[in-house]
Design goal:
Elements lengths: L9 H31 L5 H13 L4 H17 L2 H21 L4 H13 L5 H14 L4 H14 L3 H14 L4 H10 L24 E2 L2 E2 L2 H17 L4 H10 L9 E7 L4 E10 L6 E5 L2 E2 L5 E2 L7 E7 L12 E7 L4 E7 L5 E5 L14 H20 L4 H14 L5 H14 L4 H23 L3 E3 L19 E3 L20 E3 L19 E3 L14 H13 L4 E3 L7
Parallel strand pairs: 12-13, 13-14, 14-15, 15-16
Antiparallel strand pairs: 1-2, 3-4, 3-11, 4-8, 5-6, 5-9, 7-8, 9-10
Helix pairs in contact: 1-2, 2-3, 2-4, 4-5, 5-7, 6-7, 8-9, 9-11, 10-11, 10-12, 11-13, 12-13, 13-14, 14-15
């Protein structure tokens, strides 16, 4: 046994570690108490700087110490020369770099480094970019470092083209680098600063209307290059989601132009209804109604009491303002905050009138394609078709194919789109509800387009497996809607946007909630057979309770068909 190293027992090792931890803790607490003492007494000296450095070296996430350290440095700026502060701040950068080695995702360390860089008399921005390169080579998804890099790029005026080359390099080495794809999406619209979208109307599908950031667009030439780049990525690894997400951004919808999309006026109730292209708070955004050249004192209210922000607002004019059918009136709605307005004329002999841009005019769901862009997107669709032959169950390729079809011809590709959605539900059952909702959204868009091409106010979507309702602000003028034989669970509060609705058919769904039904002033006929409406607790039948509720609100005689009723 002689000459052999004695192996310590586990108990001995644990005891030694415990003593070592206690010793370190004692030193740490002593330094902490000393720092807090100086802080409470307002002592901002270099000794305090050393004490905070000692503590932060072992625990770089102590935010209070970083704050105190900045107080000290700000004080030293008042008593030291610029050259001394330059050296002091350079040492501070070295210190934060050592802290980042302890924790590369330390919020406090990255924030403090940004603060120091902004205070440096002569910052060395290339050095900071080099630090970012090194950190991202270790972890290419370190969002703290990405944020810091954006700060450095902005502060130092690095050209967009240089940063695009940087993302080229990272993406070239790793197609799965989602952060690089995302950063690229923020850079591309800056290639043409100050270039607005070429047409007044908002374009909502971005192969047709280029992606926008802060109102700027990606030039067509660059956009076509991006299609080629991302195609290389998903043909290399069809199951990697990073490139597909970026591709969906390229095929995404641009932000709508802020505008008044419709003004509707009715002599019945002397009501004016206004629809906007986005959610607004009308009273707070300076909505002014002018009738026959005279501003009106009206109270704007949203379509439902629950909504402070809504795309549809309405008001009642003073009694007798427009009730006489023999008089003609001109209305103007001014949206003062956005410096825009819309006129509407109510002619003699008419009970109602409206002025609006249709969904096709607004290019709400698609817009006209240039010949070159049509050719490229057709080629992209063919490429996705080839990939589907190799990977028939690739959900990313299926979903992208749907988006391309909708960009090119949503009505012409409707049947193929529905077939692809069915395949998606089978290969990705976890997201079946998402695909159902997205399919419902596209079906509603198609039906709105068909309705407007036919210039009718009847909206029929029966037996389409709808699971949700959307774009209800586009149905403001609809008088008859058929939603029977779908999978709807409720008529949501947004349903109150259908202010002209007179007839509702919604049989054979799974509707449990009718919240959006009670705010419709013109509703006359409702059919809700074979739904899941709950029987009231007071024992009264549901149709009696529903009739009383709506009739009391609007004073109209209405007819209802609600049986049989299923209790939940």
């Amino acid at each position: 046994m002689h000459g052999r190293v004695k192996v310590k027992s586990t108990a001995q090792q644990e005891e030694e570690k415990r003593k070592e931890r206690e010793k370190k803790l004692k030193v740490y607490l002593s330094a902490r108490d000393a720092v807090f003492s100086k802080k409470s007494n307002g002592v901002l000296d270099e000794e305090a700087l050393q004490l905070t450095q000692q503590l932060l070296s072992s625990n770089p996430d102590f935010a209070t110490l970083w704050n105190f350290r900045r107080e000290i440095l700000l004080h030293l700026e008042t008593v030291k020369e610029e050259e001394e502060m330059q050296k002091l701040y350079e040492l501070e950068l070295l210190f934060t770099e050592s802290c980042l080695k302890v924790n590369p995702k330390s919020y406090g360390s990255w924030h403090h480094r940004g603060w120091v860089s902004s205070r440096l008399p002569r910052p060395d921005w290339p050095r900071e970019l080099s630090l970012c390169d090194r950190c991202l080579s270790v972890d290419d998804r370190n969002f703290h470092c990405w944020d810091y890099r954006r700060f450095v790029v902005k502060a130092s005026g690095v050209p967009v083209s240089q940063e695009l080359r940087f993302t080229d390099r990272l993406i070239g080495s790793n197609f799965s680098n989602y952060s690089s794809w995302h950063y690229r999406s923020t850079l591309l619209p800056l290639l043409q600063p100050g270039t607005p979208s070429p047409c007044r109307k908002p374009a909502h599908v971005s192969p047709t209307a280029s992606p926008q950031t802060h109102g700027h667009r990606v030039c067509e030439e660059q956009l076509l290059k991006e299609y080629e780049l991302v195609q290389n990525a998903f043909f290399t690894d069809p199951n990697d989601q990073s490139a597909w997400f970026y591709y969906r951004w390229l095929l995404g919808r641009a932000e709508r132009e802020e505008m008044i999309s419709c003004v509707y006026v009715s002599r019945e109730g002397e009501r004016v209804t206004v629809a906007f292209s986005k959610l607004v708070n009308a009273p707070a955004e300076g909505l002014v109604l002018v009738l026959d050249g005279q501003p009106q004192q009206v109270e704007w209210r949203s379509i439902h009491p629950l909504f402070r922000h809504s795309p549809v607002w309405l008001c009642e004019l003073p009694p007798g303002s427009i009730s006489d059918i023999n008089n003609e009136h001109n209305l103007t709605v001014h949206w003062t905050e956005k410096h825009t307005h819309r006129d509407c004329a109510l002619y003699t002999g008419r009970l109602e009138s409206w002025c609006r841009d249709s969904a096709t005019d607004q290019e709400l769901f698609r817009s006209e394609l240039s010949i070159e862009k049509t050719s490229v997107l057709q080629s992209e669709l063919q490429s996705c078709g080839q990939l589907l032959e190799l990977e028939p169950q690739n959900k990313w390729c299926l979903l992208t194919t749907i988006l391309l079809m909708r960009a090119l011809d949503p009505l012409g590709h409707e049947r193929e789109t529905l077939a692809h959605f069915q395949t998606l539900k089978e290969v990705d059952p976890m997201r079946s509800s998402y695909y159902s909702d997205l399919c419902s959204k596209f079906m509603i868009e198609n039906t709105i387009l068909k309705m407007e091409y036919a210039e009718v106010r009847v909206f029929s979507l029966s037996d389409k497996n709808l699971s949700t309702l959307c774009h209800l602000d586009q149905l403001l003028l609809v008088t008859h809607i058929n939603l029977s034989s779908n999978q709807l669970l409720k008529l949501p509060p947004q349903f109150a946007m259908l202010h002209c609705l007179k007839v509702l058919e919604a049989d054979n769904n799974a509707i449990e909630n009718l919240e959006g039904l009670y705010q419709l002033p013109k509703l006359e006929d409702v059919s809700l057979r074979n739904n899941r409406l709950e029987v009231p607790r007071d024992g009264k039948t549901e149709n009696l309770d529903l009739t009383m509720g709506i009739t009391h609100s609007f004073g109209h005689k209405k007819s209802y068909a609600l049986s049989p009723i299923t209790s939940i």
